Amino acid sequence: MTIIEHLEELRSRIIRMLIAFCVAAVVAWFLYNPILSFLIMPLRHLPQAAKIIKGSGALIVTSPTEPLFIRLKVVSFSALALALPVVLWEVWRFIAPGLYANEKRYAIPFVGSALALFVGGVGLAFWTLPAALHFLTAFSGSSIQLLPRASEYLSFVMLLILAFGVAFEFPLGLLALSLMGVIPSRKLRAWRRPAWVVILVLAGFLTPAQDPITQVLLAAPMAILYEATIIIARVLKR
Q1: 167 inside domain
Q2: Cα 43 to chain center, whole Å?
Q3: 207 within domain boundaries
Q4: How far apart are CA 216 and CA 204, in angstroms?
Q5: Which of 76, 79, 80, 177 could form a disulfide with 182 if both were Cys (CB 3.0 to 4.6 A apart)?
Q6: Element (H or E) spanning 11, and its range?
């Protein structure tokens, strides 16, 4: 294929991704209330949850336009998550022509693993959120009552979910580079200690809370996944 043909192929793939995103956005728009309840759920695990949720009736807003922007933000975030399978498939279909026949057989495992890792990251994020929120709010003291602003809280939660989901894709990218011969598994073993340092730095950079609990809970599974990547790369290369 010529450069122009590659660009045309890329354009068609991007258009399909955008169509999938728009369809997912329509679905997310009508599922906004259940999604919002799901995102607020970590607050219900706090010791002062009754005062935070019931005392104020709901999360507060401070601007007449804020509810609209909150809905657009939540819908866009949800649409991105719902359209992820199509996005991953289109990415794979774009790079597949440049792969060897034995590498193309990894299409379904690649997409399935990417989805499973993303869901695992999201699940871990929601599991760590109550602990992170409890840790952060514990510094306020008894004279301060938390009344989270809707836009700030939802941005915090969605960024944390996105950070965990994207971070869990990190080993899959390393495995793909290893299978293509760009980074051999022996290099991954040799870079183990520097990789752990990089993982700790990334965990601190990606987590919006900046608290040690969330950073450790993100760095630990990333380190485990890095070790698993080394083992899987060695097995697949045999």
Answers
A1: no
A2: 20
A3: no
A4: 9
A5: 177
A6: helix 3-30
Cβ neighbors of 12 (< 8 A, separation 6 or more) are none
Give φ, ψ of 122 to 5 degrees: -65, -45
Backbone angles phi, psi at 60, to 5 degrees: -95, 155
Distance of CA 227 to the CA centre of its chain: 20
pLDDT of residue 56: 47
* Number of domain units in the chain: 1
67-109 pLDDT tens trace: 889 999 999 999 988 888 888 888 877 776 666 666 667 677 7
pLDDT given for residue 179 in this prediction: 67
Domain that holds residue 112: 3-119
CA atoms of 32 and 27, how far apart (whole Å) = 9
Number of H helices, E strands in the chain: 12, 0
Q: Which residues of 128-153 are buried (b: 16+ CB within 10 A; e: fewer)?
A: bbbebbeebbeeeeeeeebebebbeb
**HSE on the CB side for 139, CA within 13 Å?**
5
Q: How is residue 42 annotated by DSSP? A: G
Single pTM value for the model: 0.74
Given a contact cutoff of 8 angstroms between Cβ atoms, the answer to whether 20 and 86 are in contact is: yes
Is 78 part of a structural domain of the chain?
Answer: yes
Pick from 128, 92, 127: which is nearest to 113 by CA? 92
Coil, strand or helix: which one is 60?
strand
| Residue 155: per-residue pLDDT | 86
